[in-house]
Amino acid sequence: MKNTRFILLLFASLFLSAAAFAQKNDKGDDDKVPFNGLIVDLAGNPIKRAMIYVESKSRYSISDKNGKFGLTNVKENDTIHIKYRKNYYHIPVEGRKSMKIRLGDQLELADAQEDQVLIDFGYGYVKRREVTTPTGYITGDDLIKSGQTNIINALKGRVAGLQVHDGQVTIRGTSSVNLDCTPLYVVDGSVVTSLDYLSVYDVESVQVLKDGGMYGSRGANGAIVVKTKRGGK
């Protein structure tokens, strides 16, 4: 009787372990499934610099100059969220593996049901387009609430890892007397040397990227990406 009970418990344990292993593998496979997309305007021209994400802005993709973007781990019942300029768009995935999206001035979304099979950009492309590094997203209104007029001062205490010491700004928690660890500053898509000329009242939103690899070697120390209200217009 004891031997029979032991054997039953052993089989139950093996079954649960196998189920957990299979579930883990299934999740890992989902992470490797690319979701490809193309964003154009009503004339068919590519829309670049649109932000695309599923659950959180901390994991997102930015459409490139050809309007292409890539994501991973997109489930069939998820919703794709797009932020372009001041507008937000929401598109149910509904089992698709790719999308061609048309954005217009009057319509939030045109051809949302177009089930077009796009050229497979490849998993490598998708991983390059998807940003999964820690990021801080702060609105201009949140910066104003800090009571500071300087953008960097307003960011202090709101972004983990951002430090200001003797005038030197660092994001990744590293500082050196001899090496420049200053992050890259990007305002409305253009690289600038400082944010001192801007006030928090000029800002629509700020993204603090701990890894600015999307900007090449210049973003090795991270990046502070500012979108101004006039830039949004």
What does this structure look like?
It is a single chain. A hairpin with a 2-residue loop joins strand 12 and strand 13 (about 190). Helices cover about 20% and strands about 30% of the residues. The protein has helices at about 1-30, 125-130, 140-145, 150-155, 230, and strands at about 35-40, 50-55, 60, 70, 80-85, 85-90, 100-105, 130, 135-140, 165, 170, 185, 190, 205-210, 225-230. It contains 5 helices and 15 strands. The protein has about 230 residues and is of the alpha+beta class. Residues about 15-30 and about 105-115 have low confidence and may be disordered. Strands 6-5-2-3-8 form a 5-stranded antiparallel beta sheet. A 5-stranded mixed beta sheet has the order 9-14-15-12-13. Strands 4-1-7 form a 3-stranded mixed beta sheet. The longest helix is centred in the first third of the chain and has 30 residues, at about 1-30.
